Amino acid sequence: MRRICIYPKDISRITGKSYRQSLRIYNTVKKIRGKQAHQLLSIEEVCEYLGLDKEEIKAAL
């Protein structure tokens, strides 16, 4: 089974940004989506925000 959620470390690997910057991106997407602190983000939500193709990202993870 493939993962459907994404974490700041994954964003860091995908974008090449530092972990701290990736955490800021992660929290920005959560804020825009109206998610609570305990809720996770899906790969699709982050890809939509970053403007990346979700199939390429799923293959990279």
Describe the structure.
It comes from Sphingobacterium corticibacterium. This is DUF4248 domain-containing protein. The chain is mostly helical and 61 residues long. It has helices spanning 8-15, 19-33, 43-50, 54-60; strands spanning 5-6, 41-42. It contains 4 helices and 2 strands; from the N terminus they run βααβαα. The protein has one domain.
Estimate percent helicity.
55-70%
Low-confidence stretches: none
Mean pLDDT: 92
The 3D shape can be described as globular
How many distinct beta strands?
A: 2
Indicate the proportion of strand residues.
5-15%
Distance between the termini: 13 Å
Give the spatial strand order of the biggest sheet: 1-2
Sheet/helix structural class: mainly alpha
Sheet with most strands: 2 strands, antiparallel
Task: Please provide a brief summary of the model.
This protein is mainly alpha-helical. It is built from four helices and two strands.
